[in-house]
Design a protein that fits this description.
homodimer; about 260 residues; alpha+beta; Chorismate lyase; elongated; DNA-binding
DNA sequence: GCAAATTTGTTCGTATGTATT
DNA sequence: CAATACATACGAACAAATTTG
C-alpha cells in the first residue's frame, strides 16, 4: 500500500513541518502518544520516524521530557591554511582564540591535561619514533559560546623534556605564547611546515557524551603532523570536531577574501 | 539488571567477534533467528544490535539474504593542495586520474552530463552572479576499482558560452585537457587560486543509493571556488565523497614526502 | 519458469524500566 | 509520591526480496 514505509512518511511530514517553520527550534514535538493518534500509527512506528530525524540532527529527545527541534548551531569555520607564510597553522591553540574572536564569538578552553606515556602506533609512525618511546601528551577541550566545540591532543617526543630544553611541556598549564613559539624560543626548533590528514568517522562514547551528539552522528578527526626546519616531525596534534558545528577552509594560492 | 542495554551488549559482542577476526569480511552473520537463540533475546532486540553495527559501517544487511561483514574499503586520499605552484588543484578531473593511478588503482569516470539552468543560491553567491543568471553545469560520477567514489558537479557562468569563447563547456564530452586548461587556452582565463570549503553531512537518498551507504552514514561535501588572475570567480565545483572511503590531505609549507 | 523456503523489513500490541517534572 | 515521557524488551504477523528445489 505504501510506496514509502509509514515511518518514513511520518519522518518526512515532520521534517517538512520543521523546514517550513511550522515547528520552530527548541519547540517540543507532540509526544509519542499524541503522534500515535495523529498519524494513526503504533508508538513503535512513531519512534522509528523520530529516530530518522535524530540521526539527521533535526530533533533531540530527552528522556522524561520530550522531543525538541534542535536549534541550528552556527557553524564555526576553521582555516587550515592560516598564516602559511609564518608557519603558524589554523586551529592551533595560539591561533584558535583569535580566529574565534574575529567572528565575535567567545572562546573558552579547559585546563590542559598533561600525560606521559608510550607512543600509540599511529602517533609513533608520524613522529618517526618507536612505539616504546615515550611522548608528552597535552590535551584540551574547547568551547565556543559555552558549546563544546573540539577536543585536541598534542604529542611531543619526550626527548624535548628529558634533554631539559623544553621542560614546560610537562607543566599542565596553558603556555601563553603557544607551544610552537615556546619550542622555537627554548630549543631553536622552528615549525616550517605541516600536513593535515582529514577523516570523518562515528563518535565514540566519550565524544557522544562530551559533544552531545547521537551515536550515529559524525566527527571530523584531523591529524596534524608539524615539521621543523630540518624536515623532522616535531609534533602530532589530533583534533576531533563534531561535524554538525564545524567546517573547514583550505586556501591555495591567494584567493580574494570572503 | 543490565548496566548496558541488551542490544548494546549484543552489538559489542558481535563487534568484538569482527575485530578479533572471528567473523571475517564478506562472511554472513548468523541469521536474526539464530542470533535470537544465541543471545536469548527477541528478534527486535537482535535487530537493534545489528542496526548499531550497520551505522558503524561494520556490517551490511541485504534483504532476503542476510547480514554480512563489510570488507574494509582501502581509503583513497585526495591531496587538496596538489600542485599549488601551477594553480592546478587536487581532485580535479585533470588530476584525479593521475592521483589515482599513482596509487596503482584503476580510475573510471562516467559520461559527463551537461545541463544549463538558473544558478542555485549557494552557487550564485560564490560565482558572484545573480540567482537568475544562467550557469553551465557539468556533472560526473567517479569510481575507483569499480567502486563508486565521488560525485562532482562544476558550475561555470553561462557567459563563457554565450560570449562564444568557450563553447565546448556545453558539450557533454570529457574535455581531455581538463576544463582549467581549456578555459585558459580558449579565453585566456587562468586559474591562479582556489578556496575549498569542507563540510560533512548525512547523505540524501540519491547518494545513499549511488554509494551504497546507510541513511545514517556520512559524506564529505567540498565546495571549491576557483579564481582567475584578476581575482574573479571562474568556477564552483561541488564534490560529494562518502566518508567511509575518502580522506584528505592539506599540505602547508613544504612537508617531507610520506 | 515457478513454487517453496529462507531472510530481512515493517507494523502492531503490550509490558516494564528510567528520567524528569 | 504521582504523573508524564522516553527507553528497552518481548511476542506476533504479514510483506518483500532472494535463493533454492
Amino acid at each position: 500500500m505504501a510506496q514509502q514505509p509509514m515511518y518514513q512518511q511520518i519522518a518526512d511530514d515532520l521534517r517538512s513541518q520543521i523546514d517550513s517553520g511550522d515547528l520552530v527550534p527548541d519547540q517540543q514535538l507532540p509526544t509519542e502518544l499524541e503522534l500515535r493518534k495523529t498519524y494513526d500509527a503504533s508508538r513503535n512506528t512513531v519512534r522509528d520516524a523520530i529516530k530518522r530525524l535524530t540521526s539527521l540532527g533535526l530533533v533531540e529527545t530527552r528522556p522524561g521530557q520530550g522531543t525538541f527541534v534542535t536549534r541550528k548551531i552556527d557553524p564555526f569555520v576553521t582555516v587550515l591554511t592560516q598564516d602559511a607564510a609564518t608557519g603558524y597553522g589554523g586551529g592551533e591553540g595560539a591561533t584558535y582564540r583569535s580566529q574565534v574572536e574575529e567572528d565575535r564569538r567567545t572562546p573558552f578552553a579547559s585546563q590542559i591535561k598533561v600525560e606521559a606515556k608510550s607512543a600509540p602506533p599511529e602517533i609513533a609512525t608520524r613522529l618517526g619514533i618507536g612505539e616504546d618511546d615515550q611522548v608528552v601528551l597535552r590535551h584540551q577541550e574547547r568551547y565556543i559560546d559555552k558549546v563544546p566545540w573540539s577536543m585536541q591532543t598534542s604529542f611531543f617526543p619526550m626527548e624535548f623534556v628529558t634533554s631539559r630544553q623544553a621542560p614546560d611541556l610537562l607543566i599542565a598549564k596553558d603556555i601563553e605564547e603557544g607551544t610552537v613559539r615556546y619550542l622555537e624560543k627554548a630549543m631553536g626548533i622552528k615549525q616550517t611546515s605541516y600536513r593535515d590528514w582529514i577523516t570523518a568517522r562515528a563518535p565514540d562514547e566519550n565524544e557522544q557524551n562530551f559533544f552531545g551528539i547521537p551515536h550515529d552522528g559524525s566527527v571530523f578527526e584531523i591529524f596534524r603532523t608539524a615539521y621543523d626546519q630540518t624536515g623532522t616531525p616535531m609534533r602530532v596534534t589530533v583534533t576531533v570536531f563534531p561535524a554538525d558545528r564545524n567546517q573547514f577552509i583550505v586556501n591555495v594560492g591567494q584567493p580574494p577574501d570572503l
